[in-house]
Each structure stands twice: as structure tokens, then as C-alpha cells.
From TrEMBL:
GO biological process: SCF complex assembly
Provenance organism: Terrapene triunguis (Three-toed box turtle)
Family stated for the protein in its record: Belongs to the CAND family.
Record localization: Nucleus
Cellular component, GO annotation: cytosol; nucleus
Keyword annotations from UniProtKB, A to Z: Acetylation, Nucleus, Repeat, Ubl conjugation pathway
Keyword set includes Nucleus: yes
GO molecular function: TBP-class protein binding
One protein family per Pfam: TIP120
InterPro entries: ARM-like, ARM-type_fold, CAND1/CAND2, HEAT_type_2, TATA-bd_TIP120
Protein encoded by which gene: CAND2
Segments of this protein annotated with the region Disordered: 316-345
Main localization (coarse): nucleus
Protein name per UniProt: Cullin associated and neddylation dissociated 2 (putative)
Length: 1236
């Protein structure tokens, strides 16, 4: 301790030296000391250091002053509060001094101190006290100061403080407001501007009364309209406030908008510019409240975007027609007008620019008005592409690009199957305007201005992406511009890159034929770009070249174009890049891909150049950095229809590929397996057995349940081997097969991997390889079932039985001779009373899979065996038997269906199982086969739709729904008729049946459903709770799988949906369980279903929701039961990415419940489940908080800032937040998937 104070007193002494260098070094050393965390100052040292630094702020030497200011930052956190107050007092006094340099240094000092003050959440009172001191001084200075530069500095510091610590100054808010408002009429514009900025920060944290006082003042002043200059300022101020606190401005818009509209028509360009800036901020920040005014605002924008009073555009039109014939008298006129008016006074371009930006905001926020935009807005914007002012033109382009982005069809699975006619209309309207767009742009592609050329290219790129193929008729108009920008010496590198990337999009989105006439002119500049020294240009040029190769010789269709003259240039340009070792990684990869494409499409023209090129590929294959790209290129070459001769590299390449299969890089394994698969298919005659063996030894390790996709690709490769190179199969070591059988018995096997195994077994059994015949494979497949001890202990998972059964059926269909014997064997197994449950299950499931494709009518005992099994004591056997009956019937409707229907009618005890069988029949039979039986089945199902058992009702509903798909026009009206049925059970069955008619694939029933789904949705108002619950489930299914059914009904449906999210007191009852009372909420399931529907609507119908109304109900959900809170946390996280602005407006109300959840404590004596439940809840809430923190500008909200510092200060919350950050970092970005 003593040596610190000794060291410091030493430094202080040097600071008084007359030599400025000593003072400088001493101050520098002090700075170093203060930055150490360990330093502690005693009271005496504190006093001396503070006094010294304040003295040095007035030092004659500027550098010493600067350093002294820098010392203040670290000093603030090291000294006691009253010392900080001393510093602040002194700085504030100096700020009012007459010496300019001292004033500047003091204001920098104050800013430094403010930025170092600890935030409110740390609980220190120092910040609040210091701020109050500064504020009192500053407001005084701003209010009475005659010197403008002091006012400016003071305003600047006040803004700084309000933005960082506004919440702590709440006692001063009204005095700050009173001090700032008069500054809006200051004679100096700079003062007004800074006052506006300060007010913007003030409205972030002030309370409602102060905000309304401010708005009332601004509105009153706007109405008074004393002078244009102050009106401008007030409009700027309102725009600034709306930008910072849009959610508060909303309620005043009704009064503000008419005034701003009025001032738009005043002849003052600057005022107009500010009016449009205000409109833009309203559109972006108060989207709901501006809604009704959009037409009038848009009308004004369209009027003023063409506002250019001092320039005559008509001349240009005539010039085009008269081919630049200049008349003498025209020139004279020009001369005269020059005297009265100079171009520098013309600021009309600012009006046009702000109108264009406002239009861009409207287009970006109102997807629902797309058709209107194409009717009214698009032609006007296209007409303005000729704008003479470069900056304005850039904004007009941006607005049009924004319009194109809104038109882009949504590329998600949801809409792919579900694109109604709605999406098409704007696209058709756009298609009709393409010629005008090209006409307006193609001349500009040769202009000198690089900025406007880049604008043209980005607009055309977007256009080609939104409407692939739309520029086909205009290629000849665009080509000269493209070639000009590539070859022009004055083009910047970005200009070339933009041109190349447009060319790439153009080549990808259009048919090859349209480019053939232009190849001769286009190819040389592109090849020159491959040789460009700047790697980004090279890289883009290689992408374009790869696409060009596909264009000049498309392999998927015959083409008359002769590619031969161009091969040499393409090849040598790319080869140079392929050989170079010291180039950028991206260029290396693209050179390999490009050369791969050249060999694939033009390999027959390369003759002697081919073997050396392939050798380079071999080199690249050995290099770790380029191997993946090379494997993909080789796959391309091997699959080429030109049958490229790969023998020169196969001998050495095959073992390298085999070695890749054991590398720990998943993408490499997958690509290598695909490459090997193609090589085996197309080059089996050039392969030696040793090569194939080297691959086979690597395969067992790839087949496992840990990575089903890699397993699937490996098994597909094996299947290819079995078909193309059967002789190699004898070498398949037992280990590959044992891995396969292990996979078949795995509970995770399903889908693609299972199908791959089935294909492989079928291919394998046909090759008749020794030890791999039908009997051996069957034995290996079924041995676990037979070996399980006689008891009922089933060791394998249920899924494994289904997998084995499918493999058995596949083997049997490949060897029909064996099938009958095996089927009889299975029936014997079932009859044998000693058989275990496992054996019986396997037998029934295998019979089911075989019966689906083969006719089992030869097996006379089958029916009785199945019906007997329905009485088995084991549930598993019962359900397997029911599955078997269903599938066997589906394979042989004539014999089995009437039998099944008779049984359902006469056997009430076995109904549930028989109905399950019927469900299998309806699901897996073709519609034509079922038609004759529809009436009988329907009548039978309707007898059971009022059954009291909910399980039975659900199966009946599924059967009804799937049956309705067979003959929708007759059966749907019958379902509708049942809605009026008196029994709630019958109504719930019918509504659930509708749920099963909705699938995510297009179906003939869709049109009919769309017409009558409204009637089924009326059950959302049903008096019966259960009917409402199933109605919500049906609505959710529609919202999730086929949104087009319900999109247009949301206005009527949403109020009833929202109604179901409310907690109903009358449904909560108390149940006595011994000494304890337990509350049961019967309405919980319905509420849960309602919130699930709301979540589905977010994904599919976001543009049809009033998001503010929606958020009201999310807010209620955040305070509801555990299950519902979990759901609303997920909804909140999703909303943060989908509509951040709306969430920002509601932040205060959303944060409270999150904060409550994150800081709950579980009672000490609670059970373990209660702790786990709370942990899961906190985790989910914290995920929502993390999502909220990703919203841009969220940190401006005082509530959020306070909460996030509370999280940092609380160790438990902080560690939870960090772990969530880690989780989200390790996940792939789902956002990009969802939102593309």
C-alpha cells in the first residue's frame, strides 16, 4: 500500500515540472497505474490525484491535456463518491469558461466520466448523485447561455447522459423538458438539431405525463405555424421522437398526420423533405396506427417522387426519336434560363429522395397491398429510373428492389403444396411490366456513373431471381451493357463483381438457347476476368464460367450450338487457375469445380489435354484443403454421359477415396460414398477386385444407428455393388452384414435408411452368393425374436419388429417360391401355444407386410388365427393381429373386407381392434378398390360415432376422414349434416374426421373443404368443452398443413380462437385427495390447444394477423399455467425474429412475466419434479430473453437494460444465460432455413 502511494506521489511531483515531456510521461504512467485492477488509493492520495489532474486539464500543452482527460475514466471507479463530485463540479464550471480550449477539454472530460459511471443495476448511489449534479448544471447552461458553442456542448453531454442513464434522472425529466423545448426555436439550427436528439433520448425513459406534455406542445406549435423555419424543426422533432419511441407516438398519429399532410403542400422543399422523413418513421415505427393513412401518404409520395420543377425530362423522349438533332434555338433558350437559376439552389432532389425512402418503407411493411403496388406504384417508379440525381436514383432502385423482394414467392414446404391463386397475381402483373423495366434500364448500363450501373444490376438480379426466365426476350438488349461493364477499364472491382454475379443469376435462371447468339462476344471478357489479379473477381468469374459451360453444351438435351471453337479459351483460362498453388482458398475450390464442369460437358473436345488435367485432380485429392471439392468434381465427371476415360487416375485414386471413409469429416464421407457409387456404376469394367476390397473394409464402421444418413448412403453403395459387381459380394466380410442386422434391430431405424436396407436385401438375395441365400438371411433377421426366452420379456423395441417384418416381406417378394412356406410357418408359430409374445408379434407383422403385396388366400386358417389372437392376454399381440388383418385385407379386399365388416357389426368386445384394422385398410387401399364398399363402411362407422369411449371415437373419426377422401363430393356434405346432431360426441367425431382430411399434400377434396370449412369452424363456439377442443385441433392442423383453407376466414375465426385463451374460473374445481386439496383446471387443455393454434398461425398466416391484438393474448399466456407459459416463451422467441418492431413496442409488458419466472424460487421442501419443472421453465424463459436481446435497438429500452444488468448481477441467472448462448451458438442457424 505504502509503495503505491509513494510511487504516485513521485509521479505527482513530476507533473509539476516545467518540462512538458516530464509532465507528459508522468501523466502517462499515472494512467497505466490507474488501469490496474489491484490499485487502491488512500484518502490523501485520492485528493492529490484529483486536484492534480484537474490542474493538468488547464495545462499549456495540448498533449498533456489530452492525457489528463483520458485519466479521468479509470479514476472514476477508483475514488470515493465525493471526489467524483468534485471532478464533475470543476468540469461543469470550466465548461462555462471563456477559453475555448478549456471548454472543449472539459466537455470531453464530462463525457468520459459519464461513460465510466457504473450502471443503475449495480445499486450504487454514486451514479444517481453525480448525474443529478451534472444535469442541474447543464440545464442551467443550456437555458441561459448566450454562447452557442457552450449550449451545443451541453446539449451533447445531456444526450449522452440520457441515452446511457436516462432512467436515473427521472426526477429531472420535467426540468430537462422545460429546458429543451425553448431550444427548438433557437436562432441557431445546430442547437435545434441537438435539442431534437436529446428529446429523442428523453422519450425512451420518461413517464407518460411528460411524453404527453411534449406531444401536446409540439402539436400546438405545429398548428400555430409561426414561421416555416420553426415548423420544419417541429416536424423533424416529431419524426425523431417516433424513430426512438414509435410505440408511444402511435396514439397521437390521428392528430399529427393531417398536419404533416397539410405542410407537404407548402411551397418549401426542405419542409417537404422533413414531412416525408416523418411519414417514413411513422410507417416503420407505428405500422398499426398508420394503416388507415397509407393511401394518402402513398399518394403524396407518388406525386413528389416525380417532383422536379427545374428540369424538363420530355426533351429526352424527343431526342430519342429525332436521333439527337439539336435545334439552334433550343440552345439559346438554355442560355437565357441559366442566368435566373443555378443548379446549386435546386434542392428538389431532397424531396424526391425522401419520398422514395418513404415508399420503400411502405412497400417493406405492407405485404397485403402488393396488387395495389403493382397497379399504381410500380409504373411510377419505373418511370423514375431516368432520375438525373445519382443519390435519388439509388433510393428509387432500392424501393423497387424492396417491391421485388416482397413479391418473391415464399420458398417453404408449407406454401409449395399450398400456393393458391393469390400468390400468382402480382407475379403476372410484374411479368407484364418487365419490358418497360428493361427499356428504362438497358441504356443506363453503359453510363459513366458506376453507382447507377451497380443499381441497375442489383435491380435486374433481384428481378431474375423473383421471375426466373423473365428476361429471355431481352438478352440482346442487356448483353452490350454486361460486356461493357466487364471490359471497361474504368470499372471498379466492385462494379465487375456485381456484373459477374448478375450474369451468374441470369445464366442460372434462363434457358441455354437464349444465350447462344451472344457467346462469341461474352466469352472473352469473362475469360479475361478469370485472369484478374483480384481474387474476388476471379472467384466470381469462375462461377460464371462454370455456368457458361453448361449453357454452351447442355447435356440434358440435344443442342445445335457448336461449342468447339470456345473450348480452348475456357480450358486454358481455367487451367491456369487450377495449376496455381498460391491462390485464395475460394478461388482454388471454384477452379476445381469449374474444371470439373468443363471435363464433364466438354471432355470429348480435350483429347490430349485430358490425362494431365486428371492428374492435377489427383494431386488436389491428396491435399486436405481441396479434397472435398475435388471429390465432388470427380463425381460430376464420372456421371457425365460423355463416358470420360478415368483409367489414368482410378488405380491411384480409388484407395485414396477409400481412405476418406475413415476420416472424421461427415461431409467428406458422404461425398466420397456418392462418388464411389457413381464410379462403380459407370466404370465397373476398369476396377480391379483389390480396389473394391479396399473400400469394403471401410464400410462396417459407417453402418450404425448413430448416423442414419451416412448408413443409408453406405447401404445404397452396397446395393449398387450387388447389382453391378456381384462377384465382389463374396468378399463382404461378416462384419458388414452383422452391422446391418444390428441396424435392422435398432429402435431408431426408419424412413430412407430402412428402405435402403430393404433394397439391399432384395438385391443381395438375387445374386445367390454363398452363405447369403434366403434361408440364411431370414435366420439372421429373425433370430433375436426366436431366441428370446419363453417368457414375455421382449428385449427388442417395437420399431425393430416392424423393420424386421418389412425385410422379411421384401425377401419373400424377391423369392416367391419360398414365400408360401414361410407364411405357413408363421401361422404355425402363432397357433403354437408355446410361442413367446415376441414370436407371435413378429409372425403377425410379417404376415401383414407380406399380405399387403401378395395374395395369402391359400392360407385357409388365417382368419380364425387372427380372430383368436384378438383375445390374447398380451396387448402387443392384439395390436399386431389387428395390424395384420388390416394389411392382409388391403391386399385382398374382395375376400377380407366383407368378413371384417361383418365382424365389426357382430363383435362389440373386439370393436376397437377391428376398427384399427379397418383404418389400415382405408389408409393403404387405392380409392378405386374401396369404391364398391364405401356405403357399407360409412353406415357402419356412423353407428359408432357416438360411442362413449374416446379412443374408439378417435379411430372412427380417422376412418371417416380418410374415407371421405375416396369420394369427397358425396361424403363431405354428409359429415356437414352431422354438425347439427344433438350429441356432443357425434359432433366431436365429425370435427376430428375433418382434421384427418387435411394433409400437407394437394388433394382433390381441398376445393370442397375450402367451401365448407367455415361451417366446421363454427364449432369453436360449441357449448361443449370437448367439441371446442377438437375444433381447435382441427383448426391447428389446417393452419399447419394447409393454411390456404383458413387464411380468408381469420377475421371471423380469430375472436373465437382468442376467446379460448382466457382462463375460465368456472372450470376450476377443487378435488380432495385425503388431507390435501388439489385444484384441477378443466379448461387447461382447451387453452393449450388455442395457444398451439396461435403458434401455427405465426408460421403460416403472419401477414393476416393483427400482431398487437395477438401480443395481448401472448401477454396473458405468459402469466398462465406451466404448460402454457412454456408455449408462450417459444412464441415470444419466434416473434422476436418475425416482427421485432411490434415486440419492441410492447417490451415493458412482456419483460415483467419473464423477470418473474427467471427469479422464482422453489419452496425448500418441494419434490424433485417441481425443481425440474421450474428449471425447464426458467431455461425456456431465458431463451425468450436471449431472443429478445437479438432485436436491433432493444438496448435502448430502459426496462430491458435494467433486466439484462440484473441477469448479469445474479450468478444463477448469469450462468443460465451463458449456457443458453452456448447452446444457440452450437446449433445450426435455423433462422436462415425458416426465413429464406
Amino acid at each position: 500500500m505504502t509503495n503505491v502511494s509513494y510511487h504516485i506521489s513521485n509521479l505527482l511531483e513530476k507533473m509539476t515540472s516545467t518540462d512538458k515531456d516530464f509532465r507528459f510521461m508522468a501523466t502517462n504512467d499515472l494512467m497505466m497505474e490507474l488501469q490496474k485492477d489491484s490499485i487502491k488509493l488512500d484518502e490523501d492520495s485520492e485528493k492529490k490525484v484529483v486536484k492534480m489532474l484537474l490542474k493538468l486539464l488547464e495545462d499549456k500543452n495540448g498533449e498533456v491535456q489530452n492525457l489528463a482527460v483520458k485519466c479521468l475514466g479509470p479514476l472514476v471507479s477508483k475514488v470515493k463518491e465525493y471526489q467524483v463530485e468534485t471532478i464533475v463540479d470543476s468540469l461543469c464550471t470550466n465548461m462555462l469558461s471563456d477559453k475555448e480550449q478549456l471548454r472543449d477539454i472539459s466537455s470531453i472530460g464530462l463525457k468520459t466520466v459519464i461513460s465510466e459511471l457504473p450502471p443503475a443495476s449495480t445499486g450504487s448511489t454514486m451514479t444517481a448523485n453525480v448525474c443529478k449534479k451534472i444535469t442541474a448544471q447543464l440545464t442551467g447552461a443550456i437555458g441561459k447561455q448566450e454562447d452557442v458553442s457552450v449550449q451545443l456542448e451541453a446539449l451533447d453531454i445531456l444526450s449522452d447522459m440520457l441515452s446511457r442513464l436516462g432512467g436515473m434522472l427521472y426526477t429531472f425529466h420535467s426540468s430537462i423538458l422545460n429546458c429543451l423545448l425553448p431550444q427548438l426555436t433557437s436562432p441557431r439550427l445546430a442547437v435545434r438539431k441537438r435539442a431534437i436528439i436529446a428529446l429523442g433520448y428523453l422519450v425512451l425513459t420518461c413517464n407518460g405525463n411528460i411524453f404527453s406534455e411534449l406531444m401536446e406542445h409540439l402539436l400546438a406549435e405545429l398548428k400555430r405555424n409561426e414561421s416555416t423555419s420553426t415548423t420544419r424543426t417541429y416536424i423533424q422533432c416529431i419524426a425523431g421522437i417516433s424513430r426512438q419511441a414509435g410505440h408511444r407516438t402511435g396514439e397521437y398519429l390521428e392528430k399529427i398526420i393531417p398536419l404533416v399532410v397539410r405542410y407537404c403542400n407548402v411551397e418549401d422543399d426542405e419542409l417537404r423533405e422533413y414531412c416525408f422523413q416523418a411519414f417514413e418513421s411513422f410507417v416503420r415505427r407505428c405500422p398499426k396506427e398508420i394503416g388507415p393513412h397509407i393511401p394518402s401518404v402513398m399518394g403524396l409520395c407518388l406525386k413528389y417522387i416525380t417532383y422536379d420543377p427545374n428540369y424538363n425530362y420530355d426533351n429526352e423522349e424527343e431526342e430519342e426519336e429525332e436521333e439527337m438533332m439539336e435545334t439552334e434555338n433550343g440552345e439559346d433558350e438554355e442560355q437565357e434560363s441559366d442566368d435566373e437559376y443555378s443548379d446549386d439552389d435546386d434542392i428538389s432532389w431532397k424531396v424526391r429522395r425522401s419520398a422514395a425512402k418513404c415508399l420503400e418503407a411502405i412497400v417493406g411493411t405492407r405485404h397485403d397491398l402488393l396488387q395495389d403496388f403493382y397497379k399504381t406504384l410500380s409504373p411510377v417508379l419505373i418511370g423514375r429510373f431516368k432520375e438525373r440525381e445519382e443519390n435519388v436514383k439509388a433510393d428509387i432502385f432500392c424501393a423497387y428492389i424492396s417491391l421485388l423482394k416482397q413479391t418473391q414467392p415464399i420458398q417453404s414446404w408449407l406454401h409449395a403444396s399450398d400456393a393458391g391463386g393469390k400468390e400468382e397475381i402480382p407475379l403476372t402483373m410484374l411479368q407484364n411490366q418487365v419490358p418497360n423495366i428493361v427499356k428504362a434500364l438497358h441504356k443506363q448500363l453503359k453510363e459513366k456513373s458506376i453507382k447507377s450501373r451497380q443499381g441497375c444490376f442489383s435491380l435486374l438480379t433481384e428481378l431474375a431471381n423473383v421471375l426466373p426466365g423473365c428476361l429471355a426476350d431481352h438478352i440482346s438488349a442487356l448483353m452490350p451493357g454486361i460486356i461493357f461493364s466487364l471490359a471497361d477499364k474504368s470499372s471498379s472491382s466492385n462494379m465487375r463483381i456485381d456484373t459477374l454475379s448478375f450474369l451468374h443469376v441470369l445464366l442460372c435462371n434462363h434457358q441455354p438457347e437464349v444465350f447462344h447468339p451472344h457467346i462469341k462476344a461474352l466469352l472473352p471478357p469473362v475469360v479475361t476476368c478469370i485472369g484478374d489479379p483480384f481474387y474476388k473477381i476471379t472467384s466470381e468469374a469462375l462461377l460464371v464460367t462454370q455456368q457458361l459451360v453448361k449453357v454452351i453444351r447442355p447435356l440434358d438435351k440435344s443442342c445445335a450450338f457448336d461449342a468447339k471453337p470456345y473450348v480452348k479459351d475456357l480450358f486454358s483460362g481455367t487451367l491456369k487457375r487450377l495449376k496455381a498453388a498460391d491462390i485464395d482458398q475460394e478461388v482454388k475450390e471454384r477452379a476445381i469445380s469449374c474444371m470439373g464442369q468443363i471435363v464433364c460437358n466438354l471432355g470429348d473436345h480435350l483429347s490430349g489435354d485430358l490425362p494431365p488435367t486428371l492428374k492435377i485432380f489427383l494431386e488436389r485429392l491428396k491435399n486436405e484443403i481441396t479434397r472435398l471439392t475435388t471429390v465432388k468434381a470427380l463425381t460430376l465427371i464420372a456421371s457425365s454421359p460423355l463416358k470420360i476415360d478415368l483409367r489414368p487416375i482410378l488405380g491411384e485414386g480409388f484407395p485414396i477415396l477409400a481412405s476418406f471413409l475413415r476420416k472424421n469429416q461427415r461431409a467428406l464421407k458422404l461425398s466420397t460414398l456418392t462418388a464411389l457409387d457413381i464410379l462403380i456404376k459407370n466404370y465397373s469394367d476398369s476396377l480391379k477386385p483389390a480396389m473394391v476390397e479396399s473400400v469394403l473394409t471401410e464400410l462396417p464402421a459407417l453402418i450404425s444407428e448413430n448416423d442414419l444418413h451416412v448408413s443409408q448412403v453406405a447401404i445404397v453403395f452396397l446395393t449398387t455393388l450387388a447389382k453391378v459387381y456381384p462377384s465382389s459380394l463374396s468378399k463382404i466380410s461378416g462384419s458388414v452384414l452383422s452391422e446391418l442386422f444390428q441396424l435392422v434391430h435398432s429402435p431408431l431405424l426408419q424412413g430412407g435408411a430402412l428402405n435402403a436396407i430393404i433394397d439391399f436385401f432384395q438385391a443381395l438375395v438375387i445374386t445367390k452368393t454363398a452363405n447369403m441365400g434366403y434361408a440364411e438371411l431370414m435366420k439372421q433377421l429373425t433370430s433375436p425374436m426366436y431366441s428370446s426366452p419363453g417368457g414375455a420379456s421382449v428385449t427388442l423395441h417395437k420399431q425393430a419388429y416392424y423393420s424386421v417384418a418389412k425385410c422379411v416381406a421384401a425377401l419373400s417378394s424377391a423369392c416367391p417360391k419360398e414365400a408360401t412356406r414361410v407364411a405357413s410357418q408363421f401361422i404355425q408359430d402363432v397357433k403354437n401355444p408355446k410361442s413367446s409374445t415376441a414370436v407371435k408379434m413378429l409372425a403377425f407383422l410379417s404376415l401383414a407386410e407380406m399380405g399387403r403385396t401378395m395374395n395369402l388366400s391359400a392360407q385357409k386358417e388365417l382368419k380364425t388365427v387372427i380372430l383368436e389372437a384378438f383375445a390374447s392376454p398380451s396387448e402387443e399381440v392384439k395390436s399386431a393381429a389387428s395390424y395384420a388383418l388390416g394389411n392382409i385385407s388391403a391386399g385382398n379386399l374382395k375376400e377380407y373386407l366383407p368378413f371384417m365388416l361383418k365382424e365389426i357389426g357382430s363383435q362389440p368386445k373386439r370393436q376397437y381392434l377391428l376398427l384399427h384394422s379397418l383404418k389400415e385398410v382405408i389408409s393403404s387401399s387405392p380409392a378405386d378398390g374401396l369404391k364398391p364398399y364405401v356405403e357399407d363402411i360409412w353406415a357402419l362407422l356412423f353407428n359408432h360415432c357416438e360411442c362413449t369411449e374416446e379412443g374408439t371415437r378417435n379411430v372412427v373419426a380417422e376412418c371417416l376422414g380418410k374415407l371421405a377422401l375416396v369420394n369427397p363430393s358425396q361424403l363431405l356434405p354428409r359429415l356437414k349434416k352431422q354438425l347439427s346432431s344433438g350429441s356432443p360426441h357425434a359432433r366431436s367425431t365429425v370435427v376430428t374426421a375433418i382434421k384427418f382430411t387435411i394433409s400437407d399434400q394437394p388433394q382433390p377434396i381441398d376445393l370442397l373443404l375450402k367451401g365448407c370449412i367455415g361451417d366446421f369452424l363454427k364449432t369453436l363456439q360449441d357449448p361443449d368443452l370437448n367439441v371446442r377442443r377438437v375444433a381447435l385441433a382441427m383448426f391447428n392442423s389446417a393452419a399447419h398443413n394447409k393454411p390456404s383453407l383458413i387464411r380468408d376466414m381469420l377475421n371471423t375465426v380469430l375472436p373465437h380462437l382468442y376467446n379460448e385463451t382466457k382462463i375460465r374460473r368456472e372450470l376450476i374445481r377443487e378435488v380432495e385427495m385425503g388431507p390435501f386439496k388439489h385444484t384441477v383446471d378443466d379448461g387447461l387443455d382447451v387453452r393449450k390447444a388455442a395457444f398451439e393454434c396461435m403458434y401455427s398461425l405465426l408460421e403460416s398466416c403472419l401477414d393476416r394477423l393483427d400482431i398487437y391484438e395477438y401480443l395481448n393474448h401472448v401477454e396473458d399466456g405468459l402469466k398462465d399455467h406451466y404448460d402454457i407459459r412454456m408455449l408462450t416463451f417459444i412464441m415470444l422467441a419466434r416473434l422476436s425474429t418475425l416482427c421485432p418492431n411490434a415486440v419492441l413496442q410492447r417490451l415493458e409488458r412482456l419483460i415483467e412475466p419473464l423477470r418473474a419466472t427467471c427469479s422464482t424460487k422453489v419452496k425448500a421442501g418441494s419434490v424433485k419434479q417441481e425443481f425440474e419443472k421450474q428449471d425447464e421453465l426458467k431455461r425456456s424463459a431465458m431463451r425468450a430473453v436471449a431472443a429478445l436481446l437479438t432485436i436491433p435497438e432493444v438496448e435502448k429500452s430502459p426496462v430491458m437494460a435494467e433486466f439484462s444488468s440484473q441477469i448479469r448481477a445474479n450468478p444463477e441467472m448469469a450462468s443460465l444465460y451463458e449456457s443458453i448462448q452456448k447452446d444457440s451458438a452450437s446449433l445450426p442457424t435455423t433462422e436462415s432455413m425458416d426465413m429464406n
